[in-house]
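Protein modeling request. Please complete all fields; requests missing the sequence field cannot be processed.
Requester role: graduate student
Desired output: 3D structure, token encoding
Chains: 1
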Amino acid sequence: MVAQSTGGALPQAKVRHAPFRLLARLPYWLLFALLIAFVLLWSISTDDTYTLIFNAVVAGVGMTLLVTIIAYAGALLAGLVVELLRWTGNRFLVEAATFYVEIIRGVPMLVLLYYIAFVGAPGLVHLINWSGAGLIALGLDGGLAQGLAEFSIRNLSFATRAVIALVIGYSAFVAEIYRGGIESIDRGQTEAGLSLGMSRWQTLRLVVLPQAVRRVLPPLGNDFVAMLKDSALVSVLGVQDITRLGDTYASSTFRFFETYNVVAFLYLIMTVALSLLVRGMERRMPRG
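Delivered output (288 residues):
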């Protein structure tokens, strides 16, 4: 009877202490971050000032995520195109793609954002107008040509300009990630594909890329986290993201300490969650 009662108590003790074992396995930095998050959540739920600030700023989460997702999807595609140009072997295309990567990577993101918004966007509008005028001069004065000729800079919102700038800026870094992934594949596999009669493009598509994709996913995930943070830069153009709404509220109420606590809290929640997701993905990725 004693043995039975003791045996029944042990599983209950294990269940009771399971949460503590889970906490003990967590890294200290994550425990400290969770503690800060708990304190801020408690303040938001119990302090009227923090509640008002949170309600005012949280509306920008949707814009922040929208800008980040659209811009990064565009950067993934543009970076792939740039890297494929460097794979062609054509010297002109290789040099042009390399020039693009090196120049864009050397310009600070904030400077690039201003340049695209106030120099590149007006230049693009002029090019669109010129194209429309050219079509009209050729006698093709339909709705499309007229629309191009009358296209105005006001039709290009600052949110769109910010997305274009982020796409251009991050595509250069993404292209380098692709390059590292492709070059990590043993050159002998490329030579084997070519020796079997495959073209250069078939070798890239069927042999190299399937292996390179698995290797570039973790760094691409880290780059996505970086873009989420850099999306705060779009606030300088008046885009109503988290940072912009926080700036507006703090400037009107002078509650800078509380406001930027909430802004930092929202970014931390998103970035830490994404970072943990990327780390989990890295652990599950096949080695080699």
